[in-house]
Amino acid sequence: MAVFSSLSERLTSALSSLRTKGKLSASDVDGTVREIRRALLEADVALEVVKDFTAAVRERAMSDDVNKALNPAQQVVQIVNDELVGILGGETAQLEFAKTPPTVIMLAGLQGSGKTTFAGKLGKYLKAQGHTPVLVACDLQRPNAVTQLTVVAEQAGVAIFAPEPGNGKGNPVAVAKDGVKFAKQKQFDTVIIDTAGRLGVDEDLMREARAVRDATSPDEVLFVLDAMIGQDAVTTAKAFQDGVDFTGVVLTKLDGDARGGAALSVRGLTNRPIVFASTGETLDDLEQFYPDRMASRILDLGDILTLIEQAQKNFDEDEAAKVADKIATDSFTLADFLDQLQQIRKMGSMKGMLGMLPGAGKMREQLDNFDEKDVDRTEAIIRSMTPLERDNPKLLNGSRRLRIAKGSGMTVTDVNALVNRFEAAAKMMKTVARGGTPTIPGMGPVPGGRVKAKALPKKKSSKSGNPAKRAVENSQAAIPSGGSFGLGASPADPSDDEMETMRKLIERGGL
Amino acid sequence: MAWSFGKIFSKLFSTARAVEAEDWENLEDTLLQGDFGPSVTDDILAAVHAVADNSATLDTDDLRRILGEVLEERLARFDPTLTLKSSPGQPAVVLVVGVNGVGKTTTIGKFAKFIATRGKRVVVGAADTFRAAAVDQLATWADRAGVDIVVPQHEGQDPAAVAYQTVERAIADGHDVVVIDTAGRLHTKSGLMDELGKVKRVIEKLVPVAEVLLVLDATTGQNGLNQADAFLEQAGVTGLVLTKLDGSARGGFVFAVQDQSGIPVKLVGQGEGIDDLTGFTPHVFVRQLLD
């Protein structure tokens, strides 16, 4: 069994066969869903949540309209992400404050989940927002929990109410009650009650927590949960929901490398919002919870998602259809090509885009060699042409080419290379668009035609590492070895991507 | 004994009957819910299949027995014995490490009692100088266990210095076992992990470290693997302690941790009482899972 470090990689491998197909078949979806299931389990998402989740993804993947801006693989990823964000909650949740102060916030959770530390962080956070919080020490169970809270309060610069020494002595319910009374008297506007950690199965302690809750009727009961928790999140979350019926969740220790599937489990099982993410050792390390960020953390798909987002935002479908039409009818011109280039550029830097593609790791070297400026140069050359020339490259005689070269600051050779490549590529695309099999020099007919764009990165790497040799190879490649419209002198040009885009356009044109 | 954990398989095959396809699915679900993780679950299922598919008749009792054998065999590949050999002036030093909130300090309290009741003289070192009141918490445990304690001379003292002084004291006073508490640290914080290496190196200027125990919370999921890897690399972990087994968690991830890191589980903690710590026996552990 191959070991992949991230779901991105695994999905890439699971979907590699799929990329060449236009539509998702049931078995494609099943394979993908299996990978997602595994990834979710490895991220410690609770099994029952995983089951519901994958069922939902499967259903949508089978029934959704084919999204024209995305390839099938991207489309599945998109569905997965939508569902994830959907469960995690679309918006960032906020604390509810009482209309008449003090606002009472009670903390509950397992032992070692980080309640006491969080109490300090929350105190500091609220203080910075202009509130006047007081911490109430109701963990009278764990040895020296009270001392710890006292130190934390001091560090946070907030007040503390700790009448009992703890270590098993004192009544937490009475302390909680007195704490709220104390806050009213001394005009504190927020009361943060730290309670004893308990196991979900410990009914006695749960009863105590319930008693604290009933005695203080808190505005918020926050369930503090360690992001590293495994499948037990189910039992724990349910026990606390039944026990104290929390209103919000705090995820702690997110500064580690846990994927935090617990976030999904808790949301899926209890439907309570996650309010805060605790991300470090110091009292300042507290953040609001952003569902979308968590979604990509759980599945480790951040980069692909960014790419999808950009593609969707920037891809003008009408434009795309027009281009496909032009290619098919042989009226694709340099002017169209320029538009095309700009469409791609809207998505951001070419290099960044390539880097975000799954499997880009293999192309590292090419990426490093890739010169963003090549696209600029190509653009410059086309822009130095008159509209008439752009529409009809055949007009380009020697003097026109010289003028264009001067106007764009390039040489006539560069202009020649671009025009030659454009013509050859346009011809090839026409073949593809009409359903023929294009030939790539030295490779013979490409099976399946549409696979071509995928095969290209490999071809690139076959170029010589010796710059002199490479220059020769490139100059020989007057016919579009990479579907290249760029300048021949570049060791690695953006052509693959352009080619891929073109290919998609053609497919989308329904041809 | 109060093992409320486990029993995960008991409802699976309550009465003996012929095995159906559904049972395999349930078995898989149960393993996954026990935090065994997808890979180990696949392995175990394959191993159970390998035996089960050879028998002509198979009822659920057989399946449970085969599963028990497979699980036990996996656990028994490792030696859970603690090495605490000491001689006068040469105490056995145990370094206790782990991420935040897994129960290190509590474990040390129980562990100190555990060995003290076996007639050893124990001193604990409060080298968690980071967390607020950690020293006080350990002092309380030391008091309960009736063992000696060495605390930092001033707030925020270098943990390595505290560890060194504890071992020094043990050598001078003739203690048999030294247990050093360290601050919880996430395994991803390289600076803090380096500090752990330093603590170990400094102790070893006096005597070799006998055991480095990594405390893992049974409620942890697959992240336990990352923790074990990082602590093994940075602190040379020699044994695992599984805590909070009195909850509803199953700790199935230790199967993966043992397999991957080769570090055996040596102790299990299952309650808040000072006597709720025992040595690890694969047979007993598996029985708890299955019965």
UniProtKB/TrEMBL annotation, chain A:
It holds the Pfam family SRP54. Residues 436-499 are annotated as: Disordered. Its EC number is 3.6.5.4. GO terms for biological process: SRP-dependent cotranslational protein targeting to membrane. InterPro entries: AAA+_ATPase, P-loop_NTPase, Signal_recog_part_SRP54_M_sf, Signal_recog_particl_SRP54_hlx, Signal_recog_particle_SRP54_M, SRP, SRP54, SRP54_GTPase_dom. Keywords: GTP-binding, Hydrolase, Nucleotide-binding, Ribonucleoprotein, RNA-binding, Signal recognition particle. It is an enzyme of class 3 (hydrolase). Residues 451-462 have a biased composition (Basic residues). SMART domains: AAA, SRP54, SRP54_N. GO terms for cellular component: signal recognition particle, endoplasmic reticulum targeting. Belongs to the GTP-binding SRP family. SRP54 subfamily. This is signal-recognition-particle GTPase.
TrEMBL record, chain B:
Residues 91-291 form the SRP54-type proteins GTP-binding domain. The keyword Cell membrane applies. The keyword Cell membrane applies. Its main location: membrane. Residues 90-290 form the AAA+ ATPase domain. It is found in: Cell membrane. Keywords: Cell membrane, Cytoplasm, GTP-binding, Hydrolase, Membrane, Nucleotide-binding, Receptor. It is a peripheral membrane protein. SUPFAM superfamilies: Domain of the SRP/SRP receptor G-proteins, P-loop containing nucleoside triphosphate hydrolases. One of its GO terms (biological process) is SRP-dependent cotranslational protein targeting to membrane. GO terms for cellular component: cytoplasm; plasma membrane. Belongs to the GTP-binding SRP family. This is Unannotated protein.
